[in-house]
Amino acid sequence: xxxxxxxxxxxxxxxxxxxxxxxxxxxxxxxxxxxxxxxxxxxxxxxxxxxxxxxxxxxxxxxxxxxxxxxxxx
Length: 74
What we know:
The chain is of the alpha+beta class. 20% of the residues lie in helices and 34% in strands. The chain is built from 1 helix and 4 strands.
């Protein structure tokens, strides 16, 4: 799993049959049938922005503290 700024990606070797998003990858002469998917708008920056937007709607003041972060952190 990789979490970027605007999206998150997941890749793994499935145990069962997954037809969509399955890509064969060759590593050191061995073939791995990896499942790969990207979730747009679930990256760290995007989620943080969405949380702040929701908090500002609930508390319409200039200074909004995110309850998931330490005080003083943006």
